[in-house]
Known about the structure:
Blueprint: H1 3-18, E1 33-39, H2 58-66, E2 68-74, H3 79-88, H4 92-95, H5 101-105, E3 113-114, H6 129-134, E4 139-144, E5 162-164, H7 204-218, E6 224-229, H8 241-250, H9 260-282, E7 289-295, H10 328-331, E8 332-338, E9 347-349, E10 353-354, H11 358-362, H12 380-384, E11 395-399, E12 409-414, E13 417-422, E14 428-432, H13 448-465, E15 471-472
Parallel strand pairs: 1-6, 1-7, 2-9, 2-10, 4-5, 4-6
Antiparallel strand pairs: 2-8, 3-15, 7-8, 11-12, 12-13, 13-14
Amino acid sequence: MSRRPFLLAAGLLAASLAAGAAPAAPSPDRPPNLLLILADDLGWSDLGCYGADLHETPRLDALAREGVRFTQAYAMSVCSPTRAMLLTGRHAARLGMTIWIEGSLQKNPNRRLLDGESRHDLPPVETTLATQLRGAGYLTALVGKWHLGDANHAPETHGFDVNIGGTHWGAPASFWWPYANAERFAPQYRYVPHLEFGRPGEYLTDRLTDEALRVIDRAEGRPFFLYLAHHAPHTPIEAKPELVTHFEAKLRPGMRHQNAVYAAMVKSLDESVGRILDRLRERGLADTTVVVFTSDNGGYTGTDRKSGQKVPVTSNAPLRSGKGSLYEGGIRVPLLIRWPGVSVPGTVCETPVSLADLHPTLRSERSTVPRVVLDGTDLRPLLRQPGVRADRGPLFFHYPHYYETTTPVSAVRTGDWKLLEYLEDGRVELFNLAADPGEAENLAAREPQRAAELRARLDAWRREVGAKMPTPNPAFRPKK
């Protein structure tokens, strides 16, 4: 841990103790179970507790009331970089993974810049949270999406005892059993492994939940780390017909969210969380299990053309833009944490945090695996004192690629100020997120000194972590 995050953690812990809220000591013979639920492409405002209008998420809203709801939690702008960062506690740019796996293999010849180089696989030398926890005696299980490498870099090679459904692919061919076809990603045939013996009408979100429940039931007294990485609500936008009908009847003009099928997918995701939490209570594990719920990037604001839909998948309003972009709608995500004996129920934390912080927060002190330098910070002091607005240091973002919402771009946030630098032409945008969370007013011309300072800080960080940069494309020909 670097000096600044260490001082932050120490200061918050001291404040907590001074206030009389002594941290609960872990059991000497039984560390807590860890349940990490990751949604795919779920936007910041897609849950009721974050202001959704059409969507219904009663179980997640209840989880928020039982723990801490973070209002300024950040992921990377696309999936694989976030997943790598979350599991290692190291920034995606430091890892050299800045775009999803399939994207790292694509070439786009007619663009002004050639994409920055990005790894296809999570390097075996990286220590994941699963590896660290397995070294402390945990049963470690991934259920759902992996998207961090081929068979030589599969979950089993990164510390997971159990892998149900994890492959190098990022999205399923279908949410309906057998979850396989050659149409959606033609000519490629995609499937979700280890979900055989299903039945017609079986829904992927439900099946992954079934498998997660089996992991809990079979842990047999061992502490477990269950990483339930749902595919929902990523495309293809497919949902249960009865839920779609329910949300179609609920649609009204003026609602920010207008996609009834997506709303139904979010509803199934919420029901999944409820089933998992119910099983923990049934087995007497609710008070000894840490529960974390979050998303891998901002909501996708395009349309799912292959599903025949014409309305945007979701809206991240009041935040700007969506998945791929480094505006807030692309990188700010929901984050809920319930840690019995540590988190303060029904509280809100407004301190900006990163999903890289989950690794140092959840790792075990008992592990025999050697520690490495992390970019994340332990969040437990904030769980004990969520109302303390602390400066955990700057947050950096780097996406040297193209997407439908952006050209290559880097960004830095420090305090309430955020700067974006677009790498095609070097232009910068500066926003004060406290006054302008929707990033509508570019203050770079009005605050030139602040913009220059943040730009220099961003450039120094890119050099420090060895961030891969895009390069000029000699074959580029502008369209007339």
